[in-house]
């Protein structure tokens, strides 16, 4: 009986590759181990929480052992999970490094931008026509997220975040450290007692983001010296809190960058007169790609556009270029 040709793995001198788990399961587990949360992993991979959870469970079934345990403070890796996470993370880093080396070092025509949701929705998206006129021929891919990208894996070229001064192997520019102030709708004002003091404000239905920490910090910096007990819904992002305030649901914190159109149109009204600044909008990028032409042109456009819509200042730049 005539035999067929042997497969490459069966040929002399070629080592046979061991059985590997499905890549979709491995990617899900790697994201969970790196980000420390099923939700963040789902956001990172643009999948649902259910799909991520199922991939991790299937990977555990494939190995026949638990890799992740759920606790009161979120997930934690088992001993076996930590070993596999270290190996998988190193493998993905090697793939990312090889990808970066193979990609031609030319001016790219695609710019991937990650951006905090409020700024993305209320400031950047309405100006996309202006951006495309300023940078013709560039395809923009924007993701509205509170997560920070892994620049080494080319998840993004630019990250616009609201935070304190960025750290790590990145370059950054402070775009604006805006004043943050309470806002609500004229409708809400018409059916509630006047807000004249911080004591009046603290008793109202305050609209929060993911946690109540931002309002606590705001009251402290505004000079409110009493213990703060806060109520009101938590709506995850600044974009949702401002929408709720416009709808007359209560009082939210906002900056002029994300609420300017609503203030100008009379949909929102600023309450009290305060000068509280909690953080800044930063443009962050990978150090090794900071001076690429497309990224540099976007930075210039963004700085100029923000200066035109705010009180303006000379942005600070960080991240030692020689390091």
From TrEMBL:
Residues 21-78 form the HTH lysR-type domain. The keyword S-adenosyl-L-methionine does not apply. This is Transcriptional regulator, LysR family. Residues 1-20 are annotated as: Disordered. Keywords: DNA-binding, Transcription, Transcription regulation. Pfam families: HTH_1, LysR_substrate. It comes from the Bacteria. GO terms for molecular function: DNA binding. Belongs to the LysR transcriptional regulatory family. Coiled coil: none annotated. PROSITE patterns: HTH_LYSR. The keyword Transcription applies.
């Amino acid at each position: 009986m005539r035999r067929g040709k042997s497969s490459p793995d069966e040929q002399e001198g070629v080592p046979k590759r061991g059985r590997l788990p499905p890549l979709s399961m491995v990617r899900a587990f790697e994201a969970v181990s790196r980000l420390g949360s099923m939700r963040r992993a789902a956001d990172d991979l643009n999948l649902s929480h259910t799909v991520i959870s199922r991939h991790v469970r299937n990977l555990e079934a494939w190995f026949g052992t638990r890799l992740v345990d759920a606790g009161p403070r979120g997930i934690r890796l088992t001993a076996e999970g930590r070993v596999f996470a270290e190996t998988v993370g190193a493998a993905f880093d090697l793939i990312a490094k090889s990808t970066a080396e193979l990609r031609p070092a030319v001016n790219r025509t695609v710019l991937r931008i990650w951006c905090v949701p409020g700024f993305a929705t209320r400031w950047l998206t309405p100006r996309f026509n202006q951006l495309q006129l300023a940078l013709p021929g560039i395809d923009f891919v924007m993701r509205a997220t509170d997560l920070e990208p892994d620049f080494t894996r080319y998840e993004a070229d630019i990250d616009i975040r609201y935070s304190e001064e960025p750290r790590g192997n990145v370059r950054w520019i402070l775009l604006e450290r805006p004043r943050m102030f309470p806002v609500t709708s004229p409708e809400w004002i018409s059916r509630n007692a006047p807000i004249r003091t911080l004591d009046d404000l603290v008793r109202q239905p305050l609209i929060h983001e993911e946690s109540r920490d931002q309002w606590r910090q705001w009251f402290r910096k505004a000079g409110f010296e009493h213990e703060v007990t806060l109520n009101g819904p938590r709506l995850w992002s600044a974009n949702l809190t401002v929408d709720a305030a416009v709808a007359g649901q209560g009082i939210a914190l906002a900056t002029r960058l994300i609420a300017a159109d609503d203030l100008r149109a009379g949909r929102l009204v600023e309450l009290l007169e305060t000068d509280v600044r909690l953080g800044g909008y930063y443009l962050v990028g990978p150090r090794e790609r900071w001076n690429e032409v497309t990224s540099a042109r976007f930075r210039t456009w963004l700085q100029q556009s923000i200066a035109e819509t705010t009180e303006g200042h000379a942005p600070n730049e960080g991240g030692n270029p020689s390091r």
